[in-house]
Records
---
Amino acid sequence: MIEINTGISGGKKYHQSGEGEAYRKAQLTHVARDGTERWVLWSGAGPTNVGTRSSERESIDWIEAENEAIRLSAQHDAQDLTAYIELYGEALAGKIRSDFKPLHDVERDEVIETDLVRKPFPAQAHVITAAVKAWNAGITPWITADMGTGKTLMGIAAVHTHAKGRPYRAIAMVPPHLPEKWKREIEGTVDGAEVFIVRRYSDLVFMQKMRSKPVGPEWYVISQSTAKLGNPVIPRVQWGRIAGPSRGTRKYQIVKGVEVGRCVRCHGVQFDGRDTRGNKKLLAREKGEKKLLKCHDCHEPMYQQIAKTDRFPVAKYIAKKMPATFDYFVLDEMHESKGASSQIAKSMSQIHVSCKYSVGLTGTLLGGYAQNVMSLLWRLGGARSMVSHGEIYGNEGEFSKRYGRTETKVATTTIGRREQVKTSSKVKPGIMPTLYGKHLISRCITLELHQLSDHLPPYRETTAEGIAMQPDVLQAYTDICDAVAENIGTLMRHPDRSARSAIARLIYASLYYPDHPYGWGEIGYYETALNGNREWRSVITPPDLATEDARPKEEAFVDYLESEVNRGRQCWAFCEMTGTKDVQERLSSLIRERGLTTAILRSKEVPTTKREAWIAENGAKSDIIISNPTLVKTGLELFAPGKHNFSTIAWYQTGYSVYTLRQASRRSWRIGQTEDCEVKFFAYEDSLQNDVIRLIGQKLQTSQAIEGRASGNGLSSLTDTTDSIEVELAKVLAQRRIASLDLAK
């Protein structure tokens, strides 16, 4: 019940409640001859007259109603965005409809009819129509659609529909393992289309020389690696021995007969760090012949390119020799071009400026950071929007401050009478909603899988519960976590950038030791001393436990896979430990002991261009396939009607990447799938593995919310996301260490 205070002011009765913005007051100002009362109402911190009431009872009812509205609003605002939308959705929608008119209204506008061989579903047809209208309005559209919604089809159809039957020439830049798939998709979608796969720049020379116009639909498919091809670069350091007498200074010494590396331009002697006494160390030949360095004195690059004509960058050739040859540019998996200085991003930009119309396709536009889209906005059609809002090209820090989250630390040091102030800033995960409102809403066309639910089977994600470590593993794991936690605090305060990689290595050991409790050796990290030298810091040497018996998580994992196969379902298993400490072979052995067939997809054995063919060959004869999720996260489908269908995906281990988890988990839940799709995550209870799954879930809600999905965390998921997952795990370890010490006391 709301407390309402009653008093007398100037001989007039009043009622009031609340403070600040929640302040509400009603005061009696006049009583007529017939006894009718006139009460004046105020709200907020100041005496703002909001109306009158004719009786004391109505005034009290008004105060109670206003306070109840405030309470409900605050409750919903504090909970999540979903509740807020449920409460105020209609009012917000009405305001948006009155202030903004979309280029394409799904409820009002008709779709543009097409003459495609494969007819798109109604939801896809609306996306295609919206993209065409965006081009007509001078906007470069970004199709940000869920994995499995048919982005390839929509990209192809948008181009063909916009051409309106006119001959055209289009180029698609796709991941390295997808050119053949794109060729099939285009040929199966556009009647009479000619499709060419560009493997080197010479494949385009004939067309550039002929300067012929297209006579029908012409498509050129180029992989990301082909687009960014370039001549190899080798070190260029001049080596020789000192012929003259030894000489030196207080900083370094050059001894007669010692081999030194020199700059080919200024002939300055090159150094590499300092020794324990603080003296400069000469550059070692082993490092000088492997690393690409610059001269310490004149800053001349000490490397050179080797000319190989067959490796000339195709994107650069298109920009220089064929600037008006292509009408359309389709960028598949556009989020892979987000790097500000990556060669893929530069290649994408070169092709984009050479074409009249461009469209980007992605299922994971954001990965939790505002800077993920900054480079894309500048390079793929958003430069005008960036300039109009005062953005400066290359100013990543300012962009993150405005649309993301940054942490600024100010350290003050007093030395005698002097006071030194040092300020440091770092970018943290988090996205402000204004990023969507200012830069993305005008170009993003979103489509979610549930909008195609009539054409999709059920999808379910679950987490295995109750998997406990065996006592010997638990004891070793606890010791590792305690030892790592003791070092985490120092590393997180360390000014050297190598501290971040040291944290990652220690967290990796803490995270995955229970899955591979042997063969770790000494765990530690290199620390850079004040004199520039790297010194080894030992943290712990965990025990090598028995390898003969299956551990609880392995048993639970294999039990689940066996039960799925017994149901007539094929399974795909994802593992992160696929390098020096490889768990794939051990899992495969345990699976084969159950009488099941299995295969392992390895990156070193199967190049990206041959993975689709490998899956087609091994899918039909395998109950279970094991791989790292990064090998199949984009473009590849894990089912082929009548051949194979990996409708169950099991995560033995998860990494830190939201991009990878989102992409890989949806490889089977796509248009054309007929079986229910299940995804299951496995982790030891009360371990960092469980914490990783929780943290990835939070990052997932962040990226989905800004892409148009109202997540359970709402606005807090956009603006209150904290550090990277490695740092979050470091904090978890530190907090548990403190709690255990307090408990011991």
---
Amino acid sequence: MSVPEIRRRLRTPLPWRFAVARWYSRSVVFGICAAVAYGWVLAGLSKAPQPGSGWTAFWLSVAGAAVVVKVALAFGPVFAGADRLFWVLSAPVSRGAVLRPRVAGLLGAGAVVGVVWPAVVFGVVGAVVPPFVAVVVGAGVGVAVVALAVVAQRVRVRGQGWLSGVVGLAVVALLLPPRRGGALEPGGALESGAGGVLESGGVLESGGVLEPGGALEPGAGGVLGRGVVRGSEAPAGWWEGALGGVAGRPVGEAWWPAGSSGVVTGQPVWVPGLVVWLVAICLAAVAAFSVARLQRSDLAAGAALAGVARVSVSWIDLALLGAILAERRARLLGRVRSSRLAATGLRGTASRHSGSAFRRPGTGAQVLALAWTDALRLRRTPNAALVWVALLPAPALVALGGETGAVAAVHLVAAFLATDRLAAGLRFVCRSPAMRRALGLPDRRLRLAHLVFPAAGAVVWCAATAVFTPHVSALNAAISAVGAVAVVYRIATRPPIDYGAAIVDFGLFGPTPLGLLAQLGRGPVLLAVLGLVQTAV
């Protein structure tokens, strides 16, 4: 038996009509995404980067790479279901030969993501590097990141904590940009004529000399030969100081890479791509060799999560995925140290002045105890706090991208996502009748008590982002805080989805599950209405 025979046995026969229909739907989705990406890339290439754009692009890329590795390690990234796992473990062929095609597919997917990621960054901060260099380096980084995840799976390294720390560091770096030096600020000018100076507080470091031919070369004195450069309106080139360096767009026909010494030199632009691809090829070779030593536990760990994720997307209900993630998290923790709730919380206390054995605690004490359980839950699930912090710079990045009209609406959506990460206790209580009966409190009181912690998080998040986010007023922040809490509450208190709801046939558009759409719209519709209100105020 050979590897092609095993793959033939695992492949489910599909009639050609179904195959054509599947490829047609996928091609339509791909065409829509490609059109949106083309417009995004075109807008990014025509956008003049601002001072500090290189810093923002770098740390956005670092955060994106860390998130990709976290997701890949959560799924394996190499996993096998029950049917494939049987053949991988029992077939008389090399285990690595069976698994290497899947690794090759993962590396290809990483390369595609790496090519797309510069387009996303360019849409936010502009083209901080030449597009060709960004594509080559991005593809190499994507391959290297996926290969690194495969190697980490083989050596069984639990790097989720370290990766969370990298994401947190990237968020802090985005919120606290470095002091800008060696930059030509927008509106600043290098006036033409011998002995011209750099105005508007700009600094030309390391004694750069602008020659009549339009090239910036190392020199002394920092004087200007001839020519005019005016901030972001420069037709021949621009300079920005990220990390105290100087970056350049085409001066004549040449692209100048960013440097950290304050001097634009003639270093070839293909050097970063060559270095990145050398590292990526080495990691890919190690990953291809290491899959032959993956064990059953390594391959079966992500199969359950992948299956539940597929079912959750098909059923349009992410509660299943949340449940399996909570179970995996509990297994990784193994055991936790019990924490004592407030003394006057849910338990009664002995009464000294009455004949009854116990005195029922007050409403305030009960709410305090339940809110404290939410705080303990957050301490045991630090990823929720990480997402809450990671969403802080999101509205500011949209403002940096030039989409000023959508900043307030994005602020509302980000506030909702941040608040939803703190509402795990509210969702659990609303979806567990057994827990509500065990607590012995009215349903309304239980829901409001578990809403205290998410509401406090929403207020803090909106107040913090309103300080440094442009085009977000105090009224926008208040609407975002109240709206985020209201949407989270409506989604958490939504009844279980009834998949037997009414379906109406509109003829041309085919059967439409209006009943299912009405159930799923509880919460998102309110979010959309509040988004329109945010853009109007």
---
Amino acid sequence: MTTTQKLRSTYASSGYDSDGVQGTSFVAEPWSCAAAMEKEISSVSSPSRSSATLLTSCSINGSLLGEADQQGYDVEFDPPLESKYECPICLMALRAAVQTPCGHRFCRSCIEKSIRYVALQGGGLLHSCTSAHSSNLSASVSAFRDSGQKCPVDNELLQEDQLFPDNFAKREILSLTVLCPNAGCDHKTVLRQLDDHNERCQFAVTLCPLCRESVRKSELEVHTAHQCPRRPVSCPNCIQTFIYEETKVHEQSCPLASVACEYCSMELIRDQLSSHCDTDCVKAPAACPFRDFGCREKMQRNNLAQHMQEFTQLHMRYMADYLRSLSLNGALGGPSDGGGGARGGLACKCLQERVNLHETVQQLDGRLVLQDQQLRELSISNDTQAAKLVELRRHLRSLEELLRELEAQQCRGIYVWQVEGFSAHLRSQESSQPVVIHSPSFYTGRPGYKLCLRLQLQAPSAPCCANYISLFVHTMQGEFDSQLHWPLQATIRLAILDQAEDHHHMEVMETIPELYAFQRPVLPRNPKGFGYITFMALQALQERQYVKDDCLLVRCEVSLHCDRQLQQGVLQGRGPESLL
């Protein structure tokens, strides 16, 4: 319990007698009365002191006054403060301790106010107290009137000039250990160093100069820079400065803020929005140019040209009706009596306007005819160009296929397939999606067999071959099929290449002529393939650098048996008897 709490509970539970056993009774009066007394005493005893330095609140901390005008130290001591260091008046630790001739210690401020109060008790001090406490204060003053200026403890006669500083008690009190008064701080220090600690304590609380909220000193800089609702900020668009809590208001009116057109969703600054919607936006509603003649249609601006083309006759009819109405008005408004000079002038003016409008209609009619002709020519030209474009695309595809065919014939039985984007195929395999990839075609020579590879990633749930790479060879219909010997007889070497070292994963297989996979294909690609279902485990890809830059390299080498026999000289020419 702090000294302030202790003081309030003590005054609430016990009173003070006029005989001085427990001290003078004026210290037990309500705090508002004590503040009024202190103000009155200070103004009389020190007339030259500014009123701004007087005690104007009932706080017992007295942090705004000098040490000589403050009550005791309102802090929590560890261990608790001994009673010999407590002021009998304020019940707090002695501040600027003084001692009386009778041996009692008081805070200098407390005892001096006590003595001065008794000296001035007849000077109308009671009139400064509120009516709610005047009766209690009157009783206390009566007791002092009877006893004179006395020590509050033992009622010994006491003058202010009899007080002398108790430096020993002051040193002892300032050397006592106290707890930091800031909430959350567990620091302990001696009393004389408490102010220095408060200056740097991370838990000390101060007021934000902008929003007047209580924040810790250590967080004040961050608060004022990033958290304070009244911190100054600048608009990133117009560089105008305003307080943060008005950000939404500014964003709704900033002339350079980015906004979206409600019709076409185009991003542009707010100042340009009005002119954009009036002239540029293709989806903004626009009125027909013939609205003055009677057309009330509104449409998107990009549909305006189509509207003008489709409703040309209707617009001409509107203009004819308008001219007819002008003609009738001119006939009705013509000079029917001899004294209408003004009416005659108006009729001439209407007639001139009618002639001008008639000429305008003729010009527009000629322009419409010309535009219709141009549109028909453009439509015919567009159809012709579209047909040519389709033909060019078809020719380009045929050239690309021919180029691929020629490139495939240059392989001479050795083909390296680059499987790009392999990580995407692995993710599909992990999600149990089927992954089947066919390579481009290649030839074993010129002339030669046309082949392709098929790579398949087995799903995790596949029976017996889960998480394996399957690799197969397929025969295809080629340019030289009629010149070749069927079925295909060859030795085929399949390999997945290590792109860092020469540790390739390779398998060798011999063709089996009886299998349908090696017969002459009757379809563009033989549906039957020949190879390995468990060619390589997917886990083995991580052991070496088989995949580099998200690319897997697969190599196929085909050695025809017929070529090998020619190289070894096994095939012999016919003997002379064959010429018969």
---
Amino acid sequence: MQHSAKNSITSMLKSNQMLISTCLMGLEPAVLEHFLSRKIIYTAIQDNKFTKHFKPCVVRKIMRCMYQVEYPKGSFIMEEKQEGKNLFIVEEGKFQIEQEGSDEAIMGILGKLYGEEEFLMSHRRLSKIKAITNCKVWKLSRKVYKIIMKSTGENAKDLEILRNFPWFENADEDMLTKIANSIVLENFGTYEVLKLKNNTLYIINNGSVKILENKTDQVKENILGVLSRGDHFEGNTESENKMIAFYPGVELLTIDMDILKELIGERVDVRQETILEPVNENTTHDEDPSADIKLEDLEAIASLGKGSFGRVDLVRYSKDPNDIKLYALKVMEKHRTVKILQQSHVIDERKILFDCEHPFIIKLHKTFRDDMYIYMLFEACLGGQVWEILMKNGFFNDETSRFIAASAIEALDYLHRKKIIYRDLKTDNMVIDQNGYVKLVDFGLSKHLGFTGRTWSFCGTPCNIAPEIILNFGHDRAVDYWALGLMIYELLSGCSAFSDSNPRRAYEQIMDGIDSIDFSYLIVGRPAEDLIKKLCRQEPTERIGYRTIEDIREHRWFQGFDWKALISKSIKPPKCIVPSLKHPADISYVHPLEVDYTYTPIKEESNWDQAFE
């Protein structure tokens, strides 16, 4: 970028904080006083396939926060392979767009919004924009956009936290609003000891903390417990334990108890028991036969799958006298986990899975660690993936699809009651056990929301991502109902509702909505079509199941289905998904992958993974 453009950007960045404050107070910055510029920006937002779905209050704030930069002839407005940190609208001048891997350039269009996909999804840019003449450009930074989106729903989010908080179950809306206004944020960095105050209520808004015995003579840390998003506790400066933030830090919502009592008076019955006492987190139950298994007792038979996280091996317990005890061992490189900043996600996955005991959720037996890897030992389900069976059959009939969907619904209901969202429901993440029952696996994207209501991460499988995730609106359990609708569509038709090898086109289809697709002839006119459309409504709170999951169970597509028999496993699974295993260690329904077991990764010894012992 040329010198004058740099100076202009630098000066704008210096006033960035003031600009954010100004826009959020609802004032008009001088840069947008010109009516024509306002009209250009508004039209660009409304004509874009993604941003046209923004709510009017969001559009107004974006218009107020956009700032103007002048780019001289020959400079790059947008550069290739950079992160999508800005949105662009060129108001004046001529410019061209050069695509990666192409020698041809196309002329840009004035008043059109550029860079939105990389901006919304935090992707690297695959094209660049070059100024052919001097250009006048309106920009919006992603940092400001996030502030806008969060501030738009911040008050509602705080109120939702308090509505769900057990202390305030009898408070009216006026009282909850006053309490929400008293909330103060506190942040602690990686491995920082939390400096807590007496007489203060703390709610974890983001991140996790570990509770340690505060003994100076200890050679090794003794972890008493791990708290994560939604957990709460009272400050106690005389406690014998200390709390330390996991990577990348923790954000706490704090409420002064004196202020709280002053606000509440005698109007609300505040529950006096506190809050969450640290407890030892056992990795196995006493009756669990895997309790005595050690890492060195496990022998790899085959690799069941590979991904960016690592791999899953089918392993045999070498000390089993009958030689038939098999498990699935998830193996993750510690160094890579740290490199891609996934420590807190891995810790959350472990905590969530140990907290779950459900017939349709994969069971985590135990975890291990060494200098190079962390390990998670699961039950082995040898009937294969639902997706694999679906591909062999082409599609499933109503009976089989209902059985699989109902199993997912029971698992989601269980998770949602625990304030956990799954966020990656698809046929690939459902496996079949030896008796034909379906289980949910891979909790790498699951998150415990607790009382905090929503989260803002961009994650999921491109063809299954809900609209509110694409637009960074913040999301909650409604994304699981969206994914459930798409999974039912796939079960009945054998194909995805939104399918494209190009994620951008898939996102555009999703933003156009479920009503924009031509439903498969296998679904049209049947009760399942109505259920799918109700699960996949664009507005999250309007999706069936969001008010109560009973609305899904009572839908006419499930008419006559025996839910009690399913949860007790007294209902027989459909024959087409029941595996014909010749013996308990029969692996004919899984497809082993080639793995180089001699590979040795870089050691990682920062001790962030101590809970995996």
